[in-house]
Each structure stands twice: as structure tokens, then as C-alpha cells.
User: Fold these one by one.
Assistant:
Number 1:
Amino acid sequence: MVIGFIGFGNMAQAIARGIDAQREKLGAQMIAYNPTRSKIENFPGSVSACETPLEVAKRSDYLFLCVKPQMLPGSAPEFRAGIGAGTVIVSIIAGVTDEAIRALLKTDRPIVRVMPNTPLLLGKGTTAIAHPQGLSEEQYRFVCDVFESIGTAYEVPEDKFDEIIPVNGSSPALIYQIAKIVALNAEKHGLDFARSLAMFADTLQGSAAMIRQSGQDIDSLIKMVCSKGGTTLAMLDSLRDNGFDQTLDNALDRCVERAKELGRGE
């Protein structure tokens, strides 16, 4: 079993680390092409560098497309001739539909679209995976196993992959931005920035556990923190009075809109 990577940036390296850690279970050899060869040569796991993307495509049973959306049209002609009749194509490219990828690659092979996020770098990613027609259950399960080796995986319809981006793909940046604002506010009030950031990160973990494990719905969890006339309600009221809910909703819509623009090559 050979897994090949076209592009070997942070996301591809995180995926490769997960595969490397589950080598006995997955039983896979890894190869990769990247314009900056040192990214492969300096990788601490067992990935062999190829001279061309065409070589990767020819040798791969599972071909992972890990280039930027804007780069795919230019790079596709370099390797599409090497894609075999049985090759499973896995794309982590945001905004580019399976139809568009097949057109660029001139293939009728099913495309497994996945939307990972950066916590993959710590083995704690959350990945959306589409189950395309024409892919066997064994092949689909293998792709799921790869991403479950570096976090959790959820099946999402392929036609909703733009809409899922703000849920898991882009949302880490939103969380980091909120964490930064909270820690800066604490610093403004005389508290240590780094310690406040750590406390907020711990609070995020605990809050996530409450969502997953408490058995309470989200509105009940909000009410559990609030007391009449208290500090939490004052904070939430201020957010609503300043248009936070609508601003955030608009931002999430813009994220989806930008994904569709990328899919159109804009």
C-alpha cells in the first residue's frame, strides 16, 4: 500500500505523522513531492521524496492532493497522466469540488474530499470526509482510519463542503482570536497575559467536554453559567447589544462565500 502526497506542507505533514504513528495498523509506505524538497527530507517520519509529481501519481494507491486551491490548475497537468484506474484520490483542497478536480485531472475516478483543521498537527484534528459514489467501503474506511489516527472524522455530504469550513476548518482561527481578546482584556486589568491565555485554553477544554459529555443541550449549558443580574448575563447582553451574534453570523457566511469563490478560481 503506497500513500502519495502532492504537496507536503503543514497539513500533509500532520497527516503523514498520523500514518507513521499507525504504521502497523495502516500498513502503508509514504512518498511525496514538494517543490521545496527539504520539507520532505527534514520530515522526522518515513516519507520518501520523489523527483516529480508524476512519479508520485504513478506509484500511489492513495493519492493525497495537498496543494493550495490556486495551484491545482497549474500543477494538475504535471501528474494527471500517472493516475491509475484503481487510484483513490483524496483532496484536502478547500473550495474545489469533486467535479472540478476530475475535470482538471481528466479522470472519472471518485474524489474523496476531506476538510481537516490545524489541530491535526497535535493529533487532535477534526476532519470532515465525503463518501463519494464509486468508492468501496474498504477504501473509504481506510481514508477514515488515516484521519482518525490524528483526531476525529465525520462524514459530511460532498455538496456541503463549503458550508462545513467555518465549522471545523476555519473555526480554530476564530477561537484563537477570541482567546487573544480575552487574554488582552485580562492584561488590561492587571493580570498576566500568558497565564490568562492558559486558563482560557483550559476553560475551552472543559467547556468542550461539557458539550460532549454533560447530556445538556447548548441553551441549557448557557443558562447553567448565567445567574439573574450576574456577570455572565451582563457580558452576553453587551455582546448582543453590540451586534455580536449578527456580526459572527455574517463572518461565517463570508467564510462559506469565500470557499465558493476559491472553487470558481477567484
Number 2:
Amino acid sequence: MDASQMAAPDDDTVQPFQIELSRLRGRLIRFGPVLDHILTRHDHPEPVTRLLGECVVMAVTLASALKYDGIFTLQASGQGPVRTLVADVTSTGDVRGYARVRADTPIPEDVEGAALLGQGTMAFTVDQGSHTERYQGIVALTGETLADSARHYFEQSDQLQTGLKLAVDRVDGAWRGGSLMLQRLPDNQPILVGVDREEDWNRALILMDSATVAELVDPRLSAHRLLIRLFHEDGVRAFPPSPLTANCRCSRDRILRALSTLPRHDLVAIRDEGEAEITCEFCNTVYRLDVAELDSLISAAG
């Protein structure tokens, strides 16, 4: 059964929700064919593919909690066999990602998860265009998963208290992913009389953590059913979901603009080797530039 056959009605969506009793807000991310498309564009060993999947799911999860008009990027870099992970998501729901693996460092059979990155850092960036200031947060890689590092970031920063759970797995041969995120409103926000904020927050985290990997990636379990299964005692309200798509922003024009920033002698060296091939790291699309196009760039460089 291929990925398209495994698609469920609420696959590839961000489902906002609220726990009624305490007004805790949350997001449930359901990934199906979009995640499978992103991951199968690359020919990585399975542990690397799974880690890239976690990066993509977490990028969408974190971005879903923000109000922005632009691009949210999650990047993890380390000294291990996996050199870099990058995933980004636009404010309209276009998602992409890639991993760079060190060619001279084999993937150990007994190493998985964030340990494949080794010592390093994880950065969150929000870019809303040239006329706005970019926001960036950086945290050291800690724990066994990328989610552990994200939790550490929220604990160390002045952000809202946040609970996070991720899952990535194969179902009938296709990659699927899911996540849950809960955020605690500031104490000055009104809640129902008689609600113990601390007790309610801790209970919600326990309920969130009770969701299994199988539940988070199961195409037969709808988002609404999962939310009710977890939080029915406190009441849960689901809001309209937003879609996710696998869409790379690369293009021939972007490639040409990037090459136009190179010094003239570098362009001449590329032209002298004949036809140039440039591969997009995100989607593996190959762009071939002939001598005439390179000559045009050289002429423009002066």
C-alpha cells in the first residue's frame, strides 16, 4: 500500500484545540503523504530519515504556535555523523526539509535519535522579510531526542510553559508523523472558578504523554477521536484545521540569482568546466545550466 492510499481525511493538517476546563491551548499535528514525500526524496539510512522526520514534524509544531508572515526555520547542527538538519515551514503551510550526512563518518548501528548529531546546537528562526527584524532562539542539543532540546529551550527562556510530544514511524511502508503541543496561558488570563492551575497543567501533561506513537501516526484514528480520547474529562474544543503541503521554493530563477552573487572569476571557472549541475538540497531537483546561461552571468558580472 503506497503513501497516497494511506491518506486519512485529516492527514497533513494542523489541528488547533483548547481544553475547556482550564483554557489550555494546544496543537495536534497529523502528517501523512506530505511527510512521506519529503523523506523519500532523499536516500538516507533509516535512522537519519527518521531523525529528519522528527525535525520536520517539530518545525511545523513550533511554527503552528506562532503568528508570523514568512518562514519559520528549525536547524540542528552537530559534530556527529549527521552534520545538519534543516526544516522550514511558511506561514501558508508549505513544508520542506533536508539532512546533511558526513561522507567520511559511517552511521553506527547502535546510535539513533539526536545522538546522531552529537554535541551541537538547535536554532529556531522566524524570517518575515527584509523590512522586519529576524527572531532567533538557540539552545544546546540535550537529551535523546530533538523534542528534549526544544523542551529545554522553553524551560530556559521566557516563553510560555510548553509540553511537547513527537512521533515518526512507518505505517504499511509509508512514513507518517504526529505531534501534540500544549501551552499554558499566562497567569493573568481568566480561567474557570475553582480550577487549580498547577494541578490542571500537570494533569494535562500526563494525559498528553499517555498518547502512544501508534496513536499519533495511525491513519485510522481521526484527530478529533484522539483529542476526545485524551482530554474528554476536561472537555476539548477543536478549531478549524489548516493544511500542510510539501512544496519546495527552489527554481531556476533562484539558482541564477544565487550564482549572480559569485565573483566573476568563479563564474568563469564554472563555465570553463562546461555545463553546470546544481542540486537542491531540499527536494533533490537538478538544475542544468548551459554555457550560454553561464556566459550571460559572466557578462552581467562585468
Number 3:
Amino acid sequence: MAAACGPEGHVAACEPNPLLAGTYLPQNLALNGFYHGVEICPKVVGNIDDRMVDFVLHDDNFATSSLERWAQAHCEETIQVPMVTLDKLCADWPRLDLVKIDAEGAEALVWDGMRQTLNRFPHVAVVMELHLQRGPAQTVGLLHKIERAGNPLRSINYEGEIVPVDAATILAQPQDHWTLWLR
């Protein structure tokens, strides 16, 4: 993302896992020459500002750490982390082109916390990794919220094409990894 936005751009990399935010992410940025223009935000993104929340860590698989309760069945450790909304995080930004959401089941919370941001930047592209661990009711609710906000459901397929998709198809294939393109 830092390479795509160029030297004038700005990236906010939100990572609530302290090991990733404090060690791996800074090392990766430095190794790739992208330390300037990237703000590491050691918070979970959600629907509430300035509140400490439980975050489930998995030592053996960083990619499955989550804010969501489904992760607690596989819990290695739960820590308290601060939550921020994208509305607050981007409040003074003059421009926003892309938001990438990879929240391991907490996508609806992120979506709820970015309503003002979407209104301010109506042409922003949102790439959302959709994790269906939340259950059908929550997923249907999120998909309906997305559509009510004026975003047709589209997916980025494995060939990199943006294709139309509907909620029924997504729900019928919960084992698939869905990456939505919302604009």
C-alpha cells in the first residue's frame, strides 16, 4: 500500500497484536524502505472509540487473532487493546482512496465505525476480506448493510477479476475465501 500511494501519500496500518505492531511490522516496513508515510496504529478497528476491548491472540497463527468471540474457542491468550473507528482515525484526512479490511470475523464492527468516512469519501474503494465464522445471521446483516449503503456486492476472484456476487452465493459457499470489492 505504501508503494501504491507514493511519497505524498499516507498509510495507516492498524494492527492490535502487540508483537506484530511492535516488531514484525516496523521491521517489514524498514526492510522494504516504506517506513516514511506509514503510521502504525496499535489498535483494533471497530465501532467504538477510546474503549479497551478483549482481543484474542493465537501464538501459533497470527492470522487468526480476532476481536470476535468465535475465536475464543481456540484461544491462546486474551489481551486488552484500545479500539478506534475509521471515522475517528481518518477524521482530519483530506483524501482517502482505499480501505482494506481484514478483521477475522469483525468486519461488521469495522463497517459500522466507518459510516461518516464513507459519506465524506463517496468514491473510496473498500476491499473487505469476508470471514464467515460469524455465522449466517451476522453475515446476512452485514451484506444487507453494505447493499443499503449503495454498494453492489462484487467479489475479487482468484484471477483478480471483479465480478458480481449475491448474498445467497456467499452464504452457500462459507468454506470459500471471499474478498469483496465495494465502491
